[in-house]
Design goal:
heterodimer, A: 421 residues, alpha/beta, FAD/NAD(P)-binding domain, 2 domains, B: 236 residues, mainly alpha, Cytochrome Bc1 Complex, Chain D, domain 2, 39% helix, elongated
């Protein structure tokens, strides 16, 4: 088949997307409302504001004044970063890019009226809406656990106080105690994340509580970078980590927060810390807006990230159902740029180019022992499709692993500057 | 042994999907593939409850080493191929099912082979659905084939288009900081155009070793590299 950009533009035009531009030229500035100031939402707001040079009015709805990145929060658990280093403000988005910050929760979306209602009562109207709410947890995913138990058995899968709580529990573990992780079913945010967390917890325990054990209860047969993590656990934390997969009842688990017990396939285990990472779905506002499917994620057009349900509404990052991209900050940032381009093309008639996406996930296994996995993606009409991938190899030398870790530090600095300005 | 190289002549998907807007090509039509699968299902099983039969079960075949099930008795020929490093990918599976005995002369698979490129692609698309999902395991085998754009002359006139370069550059700036700060990841801001073009082509041809950059540059066309070079050479 032959692809050319002209064909791509032609298709967009035929679907009405590009031709929609004149419809809004008569009014005052077109308005974009972005819900959620994470890797997807903040990037998208910044790119729309930056590249439209003030021609589009951008409002970012985000209740938090400081955003703590989920990516690299495991390094805080391991003692490689302090908590403050994960925090980022939105000041530059307002001062340098003219984005209006609405410090509130989005409470409702009226897609017919094209308005968003805030928890504080205000109503914002939009020409295009971008929803980037990240994840919420599926009720009943782990029997015995719900959000009200998160103070006893933290999820620590949205960075912030939960991450600090898990760290405090880790530090308070009795000598020779057991740290248990209930790993999530697919799909979930950051495929290598739970296993990087195990590595960082092991690193902390090896130094402070070397007879302690880590128990992973996992409903999945396989996980990302499995060979790399298992090699690293064997090398750095010999005998400390045990994983119970579905073959041994890992999918049949119940927790009892009041007695700190975990019931695995009928067997009761007493544990000292229990990190429950439940099954996940799109952040609630996506469902409220009526753009999610029966699995709880928002299906999107792979060429633009506009939802299948409503071309005026985009969903980015973890909350979207787009195909092959893993749910990650890098993916959300990548998708945000495609969405920003599409939104600008529709509202101001700027050029639209074919969508390109990429993702790389770095993980730290131990001191100076970094690994990575990545892939590039392109859009078919059906999905965002993986077309190429790479992964660090087992047995790599220490110098390469150290360089990979240093590269990840550079990436963190780069992507946070790209998200928050 | 260059298994991946060997198979190139056998694998062609050019007749798939004539639709215009795709930037990547689906491997094939999994629904049509399900019909072709009936020819395989006498010996092979696939799906959540699959067990070995006359042939091995085919769940998770993509990305697995040949003869990878410890509990199946493979032919010496396939066992040897596995030891030599043969991994099942679109390319190697396509070559195998084109003509099993040409690919592995001692195979016990009695299937005569599937000559039609499109039918093979459909069958492989069906099989791919039962292997690891890249969403969950990002390093899993791809699910689509990158399309190399054929650019008409008027698009070639876009060469060095800084606006196009600026859009493409947003992907670079996830890692390479726009302000030129150089920690852990090198700066590419204000890089002379010619050096930029040479470096990207060196990654494309895998002469420079970094895997992330080989992947990123590998999918850039000459026009895209030129646009990026023009943008970064003048970036503030």
């Amino acid at each position: 088949m032959i692809l050319n950009r002209r064909g791509f533009l032609g298709t967009l035009a035929a679907s009405g997307a590009v031709l929609a531009a004149p419809a809004v030229l008569g009014q005052t500035k077109p308005r974009v409302v972005v819900i959620g100031g994470g890797a997807g939402g903040a990037t998208c707001a910044r790119y729309i504001a930056k590249d439209s040079d003030g021609a589009i009015d951008v409002t970012l709805i985000e209740p938090a004044e400081i955003y703590y990145t989920c990516f690299f929060s495991n390094l805080y658990l391991g003692g490689f970063r302090d908590f403050e280093s994960l925090g980022h403000t939105y000041d530059k988005l307002a001062s340098d890019y003219g984005i209006t910050l609405a410090r509130d929760m989005a409470a409702g979306v009226d897609r017919d009226a094209r308005t968003v209602t805030l928890a504080g009562g205000d109503t914002l109207s939009y020409d295009r809406l971008v929803i980037a709410p990240g994840i919420d947890f599926v009720d009943g995913s782990v029997p015995g656990w719900d959000l009200s138990k998160a103070e006893i058995m933290p999820h620590a899968y949205k960075a912030g106080p939960q991450t600090q709580l898990l760290k405090a529990q880790l530090e308070a573990m009795p000598e020779g105690g057991t740290f248990c992780m209930i790993a999530p079913p697919n799909p979930y945010r950051c495929p290598p994340g739970p296993y990087e967390r195990v590595s960082m917890v092991a690193h902390h325990l090896k130094q402070n509580n070397p007879t302690a054990k880590i128990l992973i209860v996992d409903p999945k047969e396989k996980f990302s970078k499995q060979g790399l993590f298992e090699e690293g656990w064997q090398k750095h934390y010999t005998g400390m980590v045990e994983r119970i997969g579905p073959d041994f009842g890992g999918a049949n688990v119940e927790v009892r927060p009041d007695t700190m017990e975990v019931v695995i396939d009928g067997e009761i285990e007493k544990v000292d810390v229990c990190n429950v990472i439940p099954g996940q779905k799109a952040g609630a506002i996506a469902a409220t807006a009526g753009v999610t499917d029966d699995k709880g994620w928002a299906p999107v057009n792979p060429h633009s990230m506009a939802t299948r349900a409503d071309p005026m509404v985009y969903v980015l990052g973890d909350a979207s159902a787009q195909g092959d991209m893993p749910k990650s900050g890098f993916s959300a940032n990548s998708q945000a740029k495609v969405a920003a381009m599409s939104v600008r093309a529709e509202l101001t008639g700027s050029k639209a180019f074919p969508a390109k996406y990429s993702n790389t996930c770095w993980s730290l296994i131990g001191t100076d022992d970094g690994v990575k996995v990545g892939a590039s993606y392109e859009a078919t009409d059906e999905k965002i499709a993986s077309v190429d991938s790479f992964i660090s190899q087992t047995g790599e030398d220490a110098e390469l692993r150290k360089a990979t870790y240093e590269e990840s530090l550079g990436w963190y600095a780069g992507i946070t500057a790209d998200i928050f300005g | 042994m260059a298994w991946r190289g060997f198979s190139h002549l056998a694998f062609g998907l050019t007749l798939l999907g004539a639709a215009g807007a795709d930037a990547a090509t689906e491997i094939g039509d999994a629904e049509r593939g399900a019909a072709i699968w009936q020819e395989c299902a006498g010996c092979h099983a696939i799906g959540p409850d699959a067990e070995h039969g006359i042939g091995p079960k085919l769940n998770g075949i993509f990305g697995r080493r040949a003869a990878g099930h410890d509990d199946f008795n493979y032919s010496k020929s396939l066992a040897r191929a596995g030891r030599d490093g043969l991994v099942w990918t679109f390319e190697t599976l396509d070559a195998y099912i084109t003509n099993p005995r040409t690919f592995a002369s001692g195979t016990r698979m009695s299937y005569p082979g599937l000559k039609d490129t499109g039918q093979r692609a459909d069958l492989l698309a069906f099989l791919r659905d039962f292997s690891d999902k890249p969403r969950d395991i990002p390093e899993a085998e791809p699910t689509a084939r990158r399309t190399v754009p054929e650019l008409p002359p008027e698009v070639l006139a876009m060469k060095g288009d800084p606006e196009f370069g600026e859009y493409l550059a947003s992907e670079c700036q996830t890692c390479h900081r726009a302000d030129g700060v150089d920690v852990g990841i090198p700066s590419i801001t204000l890089w002379p155009e010619e050096d930029f073009v040479l470096a990207m082509h060196a990654y494309k041809q895998k002469l420079r070793p970094h895997p992330v950059m080989q992947m990123m540059a590998g999918r850039l066309t000459e026009e895209e590299i030129a646009a990026l070079a023009a943008y970064f050479a003048a970036a503030e």
